[in-house]
Write a structure and sequence with these properties.
Elements (H helix, E strand, L loop, with lengths): L3 E9 L2 E9 L3 E6 L6 H9 L5 E6 L2 E5 L2 E2 L7 E4 L11 H9 L11 H7 L15 H13 L5 E5 L7 H17 L3 E6 L2 H7 L2 E6 L2 E7 H5 L13 E12 L4 E6 L2 E6 L9 E7 L3 E4 L10 E15 L2 E8 L2 E8 H7 L6 E6 L3 E2 L2
Parallel strand pairs: 3-9, 3-10, 7-8, 8-9
Antiparallel strand pairs: 1-2, 1-4, 4-5, 5-6, 10-11, 12-13, 12-15, 13-14, 15-21, 16-20, 17-18, 17-20, 18-19
Helix pairs in contact: 2-4, 4-5
This protein binds adenosine-5'-triphosphate (ATP).
The site of adenosine-5'-triphosphate has 11 residues, from helix 1.
Length: about 350
């Protein structure tokens, strides 16, 4: 898939958007940043709902440049908002068919059954929207959007109107989409946890500008923490379940550079790929592997980089276990006491590890 090339300038009375982006043509790109930084404005520029100077190329086609501006209805994209408005007089099936029937057969890239299957809607097809939960309504809205066979899916905080339980319910469907969809998704979110779970690529915005962007894992492992995650700073790594020990409720996951013990959940079987999140505040560093301590996860690593005094008294250490980066947040005092420096071989003591998939 061709990458998305986007360059936009637009100005309101008290705000200016100025961005240049080259985004992957597949997978989920999360747009992340504080309220008012311009995330929705950027989506609106992409959708052609906001006029702007610049250019936009999607799927190898020019949607906008100095010589032309395709209006929204000529941009093959779908947009899912926070609050969904389904047609109240049509069943779920009727809502899904509404957009689908308008796409000529030859141009359909996603079938009705595929969308229903990806979003788990089979048992809801005859329901009326008034009888759906918030999470179910959003799933219908996403399926309806996909059935217009878009080249690009824009999602503007699709979970923010849902309660915590509904968010948890819908997440596996979104993860499934990330694996199944051949088109790129641009996903606006405030939530670090959502981004960690769903994104492949992240773009951090501040005051109408892009302040950092890159592949999720690499970018989250930067010691300069451009995402301002503070307490939530940490890395995501891809691992595979290698062994389960039901009697201890634990399983072992291998990653490129080591292994980690995780709490065993239903569905975790040998061979299953998982996304694991390790927070910087959950890692401490030891110079030797002490066998007589309670922490299960002791991983050998080499110090790659140290950012001293990221906040008063605290430093951020980037470590590599094989090729996999980790971040550890330490007091600057312990850095001095242990005489830690780049290149040193150490042991990471990891207090807590969470599966995000
Ligand atoms: N049509 C408009 N006219 C004037 N100002 C606008 C307009 N649309 C947005 N703005 C301003 O542009 C800035 C960026 O708004 P935008 O909605 O893009 O931010 P956001 O990052 O999506 O915020 P949130 O996370 O709260 O949704 C804000 O200061 C907003 O007030």
């Amino acid at each position: 898939m061709s990458p998305i090339q986007a360059s936009f300038r637009c100005r309101f009375e008290n705000f200016e958007l100025s961005v240049d982006l080259l985004l992957p043509g597949k997978g989920v790109t999360a747009l992340f940043g504080h309220s008012g930084c311009g995330k929705t404005t950027l989506l609106r520029c992409i959708a052609g709902l906001q006029t702007s100077e610049g250019y936009l190329n999607v799927a190898g086609e020019c949607w906008q440049d100095s010589s032309g501006f395709r209006p929204t209805h000529q941009r093959p994209l779908a947009y899912v908002f926070q609050e969904t408005s389904l047609f109240p007089h049509l069943s779920v099936s009727g809502n899904l068919n509404y957009g689908y029937r308008r796409i000529p057969r030859a141009e359909r890239r996603i079938t009705f059954d595929q969308a229903v299957d990806w979003l788990g809607l089979t048992h809801l097809l005859n329901r009326m929207p008034a009888k759906l939960s918030g999470g179910e309504r959003q799933r219908v809205a996403i399926a309806r959007a996909l059935l217009t066979s878009p080249r690009l899916l824009l999602m503007d905080e699709p979970l923010s109107a849902l309660d915590q339980t509904s968010k948890q319910e819908i997440m596996p469907y979104l993860e499934n989409l990330r694996e199944s969809l051949a088109i790129p998704v641009i996903y606006v979110s405030h939530s670090a946890a959502e981004v960690a779970r769903l994104a492949d690529h992240i773009v951090m915005m501040d005051n109408g500008r892009v302040v950092a962007e890159g592949p999720l894992q690499e970018t989250l492992a930067r010691t300069d923490q451009p995402f301002g995650l503070e307490e939530d700073a940490g890395v995501i790594l891809n691992a595979t379940i290698e062994q389960v020990e039901p009697e201890w409720h634990l399983c072992r996951a291998g990653f490129d550079g080591g292994e980690l013990w995780l709490r065993l959940h239903d569905g975790l079987v040998p061979g299953k790929p998982v996304r694991v999140r390790v927070l910087a505040r959950d890692i401490s560093i030891a110079l030797a592997a002490h066998p007589d301590q309670s922490i299960q996860n002791l991983v050998p690593a080499v110090i790659d980089e140290i950012a001293r005094e990221v906040t008063p008294g605290t430093s951020m250490v980037r470590l590599l276990a094989g090729q996999t980066p980790f971040l550890a947040r330490l007091t600057t005092r312990s850095l001095h006491q242990l005489k830690l420096e780049a290149g040193r071989n150490v042991w990471m003591q990891i207090k807590s590890v969470a599966i995000v998939d």
